Amino acid sequence: MTTAESSSLKVAIIGGGLVGALEACFFAKRGHNVRLYEYREDIRLVEEIRGRSINLALSARGRAALREVGLEDLLVKDHGIPMRARMIHGKDCSLTEILYDPVNKNCIYSVNRRYLNEVLLNAAEKYPNVRLYFNKKLVSADLERGKMTFLDRKTSEEEETSADLIVGADGAFSTVRRIMTKRPLYNFSQTYIEHGYMELCIPAKDDGKFAMAKNNLHIWPRGEFMMIALPNQDGSYTVTLFAPFETFNSLNTARKLLDFFREQFPDAVPLLGEDKLTEDFFSNKPLPLISIKCRPFHVQSSALIIGDAAHAMVPFYGQGMNTGFEDCLILDRLFETHRSDLSKVLPAFSEARCTDSHVICDLAMYNYIEMRDLVNKKSFIVRKHLDTFLYWLLPNTWVPLYNSVHFSRIPFHKCTANRSWQEKIIRRGAYFLITIIFAVLVGILSGQRIIKF
Amino acid sequence: MTTAESSSLKVAIIGGGLVGALEACFFAKRGHNVRLYEYREDIRLVEEIRGRSINLALSARGRAALREVGLEDLLVKDHGIPMRARMIHGKDCSLTEILYDPVNKNCIYSVNRRYLNEVLLNAAEKYPNVRLYFNKKLVSADLERGKMTFLDRKTSEEEETSADLIVGADGAFSTVRRIMTKRPLYNFSQTYIEHGYMELCIPAKDDGKFAMAKNNLHIWPRGEFMMIALPNQDGSYTVTLFAPFETFNSLNTARKLLDFFREQFPDAVPLLGEDKLTEDFFSNKPLPLISIKCRPFHVQSSALIIGDAAHAMVPFYGQGMNTGFEDCLILDRLFETHRSDLSKVLPAFSEARCTDSHVICDLAMYNYIEMRDLVNKKSFIVRKHLDTFLYWLLPNTWVPLYNSVHFSRIPFHKCTANRSWQEKIIRRGAYFLITIIFAVLVGILSGQRIIKF
């Protein structure tokens, strides 16, 4: 299993979430010595985790990375629930199914965040060259020299350590990135959207079965806000309400809440249960959504950020985790290409990933508008059908944006460049048609001497 | 001179640069008690200041603010040098003059940064309710509670103080903003461009006269880089070279530098003087250019950022200082409207200024491309002439972007909305013309039975 390198590196991974744990597997497979430091305690020993989304949509990019460390089948085939289509719930309780990929029948998979994280930590721990440390808070780091100071959150003791390479996989509020941001010429942006999210739950039916169609990502698009639901292994759905903070704030009594839900999501109310909905809603508070872009992702040949630390995005394209997993895969390929020469691998990683991650961050932001609004519009449906037809006709040439993002590993910037090209063709085609029709009409009228030149 | 408010506020202004000093005058005029804290020593006592641009272009927005505190005439009429046009210098030593405002003959004014700052500090100091403190470094602040800790850079002693309102006018690397950025839901971005700048000098001729046309902003646009020159009171020009850092780095010998200048800026070399150019170039290093956007500009009813602290921009639209000065004017108007009620004034200021400042930051970024490249292109010149013609024809309807930004106080977002509308009209007009011509041709051919329907 282990591909020994000519010289093995001391790698410190900061963060034992999904991307950090997967990255540990990749480095271990290459024979490097990995120490993974996680701020929280070991989630495998914790009963309940709050404040993070419960399930996630896994697609091609994430799957490709999991395949590489031998975990794809376990997570996708054995555990994941395939979602073949969006199921649009109207305010009149109507249902409209929009297939993700009518041509190739590809699916995205609903997976449980906690299960996935546990599987990845177990996999990492199995490598003899990986050690996991929990309750270790990174206090400071000298990224150029690979030096770090950790605070042990149990003993309150500080300890210093060093590594050849520091990998920040410490999430949207990354400490490693915060240190990077202070460097000269560092580009950085953090954007909070004016909408928050709250997770609710539709439990399984009494017989343990799903209360709605199982193989769908359910969406209640309502223009200014929306609700979605993804299926879980146990027959329940994790439901997420996305709305402006002021909408959340205005629902300050059970009465207002239920009136709002009965009007906006009438078919969901009996499934959520009025009492349970009220209890869940008022025992939680809406959480913010942040989008992070930065450049570069590395410092010299000694530090790197990956995953949400490098490109946290709003969740509306379902690509946050997938992009993070793809980071691991691309980094691994670069280690291969440049024979673990960090002075080449790290700049090449920034080169390969910065622009692409900015593109997917922007797409995710844009898709919020599409999900909560455009899917209600005729023009969107017509365009979707046109795309599907052209994709069926020209499967290698006309890949719709959604398909290239979810079901291919085409770099994100090429996906959007393709889309721009498609838009141009359609626009020009339309102008051309109109001009021809107009000219033919003029020609006919003039030929019949109805108009004269 | 002093308009007494019903209750006067304790205002702490952080930063005694252009915007901080002007803001002190505005607050003093309203009868508030102002303490201004500047990190550096008093520039009025210093011989030479390095690292900041030497002259600046003052236009309508800045003038309007200076007028309000009675300084417009002194700075514009007595001191400023009017620049009526861009003077484009070709590689073949050709000169092309492009008037800024052929219709109304408006000018922008070249003013000396240091002189301007001294005038503003003197003006602020004249108010009995203003006190200036120099060598005071803001170490930390509790923005909600108006508490601040300063380090005296002479005595190395720390002192604590408080105010009803903290105003951060502490520039692109603002400490006040850095503290704001850590607050929840704070949006922030810092972008460095890949180009740096270096200031050089064309001295006055032996007779004290200007070596080039005086009333111009001189531009040597060269695609990937450019050089500009603004006139100074003493007959000299401050010349600024903008180029990719790698271009600066490649000019690492006197030979290479002179070859480069002789090829790219042949008419400027004798004016710069080969020896002086070489000396200036190698005793300086290129400085970075940063663009800062953030939102909001205030914290509750106790803190605010203005000027570069709130919206540092690249210098290519000549609006950095003007926008900062306009901040002071708009804030003053809001104090009037909301009768100094900080809980209303501060949110209203963010509302009025955030979007507008993002627009001008983006315009400034875009204008770098225009200045160094597009002005060389035929399409740009044609569009400029079309704009001028339509502006002359419809002076109230068709205000070109450059004119509305420089010579009006139309909010920036309306300037760009206008521009988008103009682009749409031109595009549609062009399509319409082409379609009509095509149809007429078809009609003629068909009427003559050359083609048949």
UniProtKB/TrEMBL annotation, chains A, B:
InterPro entries for the chain: FAD-bd (IPR002938), FAD/NAD-bd_sf (IPR036188), Kynurenine_monooxygenase (IPR027545)
Keyword Flavoprotein among UniProt keywords: yes
Pathway assignment: Cofactor biosynthesis; NAD(+) biosynthesis; quinolinate from L-kynurenine: step 1/3
UniProt membrane topology term: Multi-pass membrane protein
EC number: 1.14.13.9
Location in the cell: Mitochondrion; Membrane
UniProt entry keywords in alphabetical sequence: FAD, Flavoprotein, Membrane, Mitochondrion, Monooxygenase, NADP, Oxidoreductase, Pyridine nucleotide biosynthesis, Transmembrane, Transmembrane helix
Every FAD-binding domain range: 9-331
Superkingdom field: Eukaryota
Pfam families: FAD_binding_3
Membrane-traversing stretches: 429-447
Catalysed transformations (reactions): L-kynurenine + NADPH + O2 + H(+) = 3-hydroxy-L-kynurenine + NADP(+) + H2O
Function: Catalyzes the hydroxylation of L-kynurenine (L-Kyn) to form 3-hydroxy-L-kynurenine (L-3OHKyn). Required for synthesis of quinolinic acid.
Similarity field: Belongs to the aromatic-ring hydroxylase family. KMO subfamily.
Protein name: Kynurenine 3-monooxygenase
